[in-house]
Design a protein that fits this description.
The structure holds two protein chains of two kinds. Chain A is built from seven helices and eleven strands. By secondary structure, chain A is an alpha/beta fold. Chain B has a single domain, classed as Porin (Beta Barrel), CATH 2.40.160. The chains are: A alpha/beta, B mainly beta.
Chain lengths: 173, 392
Amino acid sequence: MKKCLFWALCVLLSTCPISAANDRPVIEENQGKALLIYNIAKFTEWPPATTPFVFTLWNDDALADAFEIIEGQETQGRKVEINRQNKDSIAVDCQVIVIPKQQLQQFIEVRDELDKLPTLTVTTEPNVFEAGAMILVEVIDDHLAFSVNLAAVKASGLEISGNLLRHAEVVNF
Amino acid sequence: MKTIKNYLLAYLFLAMGLSAFGQTPPVDLANMSLGDLLNAKIIRSYADHAAFKTGGQGAPLGYLDSSRFHFSTSYVKVRFDGYMDGTDDVSINDVLWPWYEADSPRTDENFPVVPTVITQEAVQFKGAYDLSEQWSLSLSIPYIRQETEHVSSKPGFDEFTIVSEGFGDVELAATWLHRLNQNSSILVNLGFSLPTGSIDEKGRTPKDANVDTQLPYTMQLGSGTYDIKPSIVYSGAAGDWTYGANLNMTLRTGKNDRDYRLGNVYQAGIWTRYALTDWIQPSFRIDGIVWGDISGEDEDLALTLPEQNPVPNSPPVPYSQIGLPYPAAVVKPDNFGGTKLLALVGLRLKDPRGRLENTFLELEAGAPFYQDLNGPQPSEDWRFSASFVFSF
């Protein structure tokens, strides 16, 4: 009994200094991705509108839950709304669509249509980014990073701020 | 001892509280600058589908991934050494009945054959498929090897070892995952165990030196019954800590072809895991297990009258001494069941990037710190497990 408690105490005590020494903000992965996507949207120039600013989460409840922290906030003077799209087909009446890995095929099917709209296509999956999504948001080591497919962004008529692009991991021209 | 436990619990909760306190509250998060956001330390999502669906031991902590297929291979080794009756240790000499000593009467607590060290090893192959974000199905196939060392008072069998080996009971399960909020979830699992493991394992024992005979319940590879295995798991996260609790049951139905039914098993556990880095995560777990004795009995395991004399052609032994039909504690149905509490420490190792993002190796070892057994019964000495989980 004493031996077991001793082991447990050693494990727990060994973790204490690291916890105390960590002074960076700590964010859960999905919340971090949601916030980064929200920030990218803020650094993007959109056609003027007064309708709500809609983020569509396509069959990704876990990430949609994380987006609740920005629901009701304002960007570009527009109120943020979260749209959970739980069908294989995608409604394109939104400003940002987040595409998960399992929707890769469906994304490829509607990619050409999306490219003509002022809609930012964002993903957390490298495969979807390679297939034509405009923004890739990922965790590298223990921090957030993003890559931009700038040619696709420009083709849609959107403009991303240079202040954002200088933080990008990769920019494809 | 109570003081140590209190200090341990106090530290655990204090550390979890401090860690949670270190997180930025949601209101501040929404207004974080881009620079602060890119500088933030990211902790992985809490609910680990792969571990939930393939871990099996109720330590489902780690990362949410979007993979649809999850596979695991785990190795478990449990060693039993020594005997206990209730909470008291009992020596081998107390359990072994030296029939040839006139002043050593046979009782229902001594036996002519005594298993001394029992080693149970299992390699389990488990696969799961996600039907949706919430629902998944899984299949588990165990391969079991059991070895028991014995001493006996029968000449020629002073010391002997028997081994049984083969596939155990296959289990099918459906799992439902429900997110309570961003930092916690509940998982409900309903498993059905099919009687695919053998209950007819035979070997050479003192019962008959010339013919293989039915081995004890502990050496069989399956239960022989259809078993229902419900479980519920809660897990949560606070900063770099994840924690949770689980309740698992194995409910036997009917009786098997050998006219017995193993006892139901009820297991409850609490655990915590700390993300020391992205790739190394130590854990600590307390498990409590209550299990029942055997209903009915396998008649092939009891001694019949002509065989009761342990040594044929030896001087007669008074019937009063040999009237008890069980040659070993492990064939006596009442000498099963009990309660035990275990403490286990573990380590999860994973590559947080690239092709191995959804893959991890988990090691865990521990020992009981409390056992109350329907005895005399072999007592657990220690256990070890290693699991390799991958998803795609």
